[in-house]
Amino acid sequence: MNSKERVLAVFKHQIPDRPPLWVGMSSEFESKACQELQMDTEALLLRFGDDFRVVRADFAGVTADAYGHYLSPFGVPREGYGYGMPMTHPLATAGTIAELDRWNWPSADQIEVSGIRPRILAYHDKYAILSGDWSPLWHDAIDLVGMENLFIKMFDCPEFVLELFKRITDYYVASNRKIFNASADLIDVMFIGNDLGAQTGALLSPELFCTFLLPSLQRLFDLGHEYGLRVQMHCCGGVAELLDDLIVAGLDAIHAVQCTCRGMELSELKTKFGSRIILNGGIDSHHILLDGTPQFVKEKTLEVLSVMSPGGNYIAGASHDTILQQTPVENVLAMCDAVTCFNK
Predict the structure, then answer these.
(1) In angstroms, rounded to a whole number, what is the distance separating the alpha carbons of residues 23 and 300?
(2) Quick check: 145 pLDDT over 80?
(3) Which end of the chain is more exposed for a tag (fewer CB within 10 A), N or C?
(4) Number of domains observed in the structure of the chain
(5) What mean pLDDT, rounded, does the chain reach?
């Protein structure tokens, strides 16, 4: 099997020749690994044996404020590591639909799709293509209102929160539809991201999740399926208590299975959910990849594979979307080599 065939077999609930491999890297780790191994990014992905390629549309809107801070599509400045943290919550005191009416909501006109097909065609026959808009609607709501305020408003003005999520999701439905109208025939997996968990469990109860957030996520799942795509969502943290509802809503794969969080013990996840959803990740990037030796990483990776690969419905990879800069390159190589040689 080539990479594309291997991944599509898993999404068809068939048994591949080996578990597909997903290597998510921070830009800082990618730069470090390319420098250490004297490779460009594509050569690095080939060396790792990554079965996926991520191709995103360009954003043509304003991406920075007057002070150089990253600006979200919803106009919230962020500062810090990566995309940073919100510097302000412009709708923190809002609580009415009229106040939402006055906000300057983004338009999908800011999504530039003219270059996406040529970029995908460079990989299309060989690798599984992940694409679509990241669609972090949960994070955008927190940026606009503030996390504590958002939870309070769920009880004090629930209609406001429902409408807030609807308007954020309206944008992501439109942006994804624009991308898919241009290139869905070349895409394999719609890949979105919303971190709904912490080390100790889900950030909101199943009841609040189903009331306020799941309807918006289901709109995105349905949109991906409308275009014949599988849907995978990146979701950090202990989210086992939300998985039943996500599966019923139509999610095909959950990434990145943060195995060190409460409720995310791999054998239990495999037993309870392994026949119902594709589990992507689970190789501990918090301790093992960071602190282990290459031999220890290899041994622990093989332990994960022995639990997760039987019966299929598993994609191997680290337990977080972005392998951090301080992770030793030789440890990531050890993980990847253990996966790509598994069952051979």
Answers:
(1) 16
(2) yes
(3) C
(4) 1
(5) 96
Q: 71 - beta bridge partners?
A: 77
Question: If DSSP states are collapsed to H, E and C, what string results for the chain?
Answer: CCHHHHHHHHHCCCCCCCCCEECCECHHHHHHHHHHHCCCHHHHHHHHCCCEEECCCEECCCCECCCCCEECCCCCEEECCCCCEECCCCCCCCCCHHHHHCCCCCCHHHEECCCHHHHHHCCCCCCEEEECCCCCHHHHHHHHHCHHHHHHHHHHCHHHHHHHHHHHHHHHHHHHHHHHHHHHHHCCEEEEECCCEECCEECCCHHHHHHHHHHHHHHHHHHHHHCCCEEEEECCCCCHHHHHHHHHHCCCEEEECCCCCCCCCHHHHHHHHCCCCEEEECECCCCHHHHCCHHHHHHHHHHHHHHHCCCCCEEEEECCCCECCCCCHHHHHHHHHHHHCCCC
Q: pLDDT digits over 215-240, tens only?
A: 999 999 999 999 999 999 999 999 99
pTM for the structure as a whole: 0.96
Within 10 angstroms of residue 249's Cβ, the number of other Cβ atoms is: 17
Residues in the chain: 344
Q: Is the pLDDT of residue 20 over 80?
A: yes
Percent of the chain with pLDDT over 70: 100
Residue 34's CB: how many other CB atoms inside 10 A? 16
What are the pLDDT digits (tens) for 288-322?
A: 999 999 999 999 999 999 999 999 999 999 998 78
Joined tokens for residue 106:
């983004």
Say whether pLDDT at 336 is over 80.
Answer: yes
Domain containing residue 45: CATH number: 3.20.20.210
- The Cβ of residue 187 has, within 10 Å, a number of other Cβ atoms equal to 25
- Alpha carbon distances (Å) from 4 to 9, 116, 193: 8, 18, 22
**pLDDT for 344 beyond 70:** no
